[in-house]
Amino acid sequence: MDAIEFGQYLKSLRKAKGLTLIQLGESIGFSNPYLSQIENGHKGIPSPDLLKKLAPHLGTQYSELLFNAGYVSMDDVGGSDIMGEPLTIGVNGREYFAVEVDTFLQIKKMIYEHKNSLNELSVILESDQLTYKKQILTDLDRKRILIMLEQLFPDKQ
Length: 157
Description:
- By secondary structure, the protein is mainly alpha-helical.
- The chain contains eight helices and four strands, in the order H-H-H-H-H-E-E-H-H-E-E-H.
């Protein structure tokens, strides 16, 4: 979906719940003009953070909004229907491990930003002091990230 189609999709969800832009905006802490611009396709696809705030008010799952916004594909997620619950990362029909949606998106973004330097990334992941949200990653955490990288980039091994 492009920004206009996605905006129309969000608008249809909002109207199906019987919410005005003002009501929705007050519920999630965004102005109704800003939400109107999103619904009209003038602001592009909303961020995953905004989608997470919208999901419960629009009566849909966070994972569904992420999928329709193009942040994840069916190949990425083998999924849970519950927002905030772990999602299973699947490649070619095989499940590898569970990860929260936000973590997955951050890793995917990091991979995209550094896709030409996987060797550097693998060296970074070997660090004993690597943190995520101020928590030091364990050996198992780093191994899971490496598995995800290998599955996303099988030709880079």
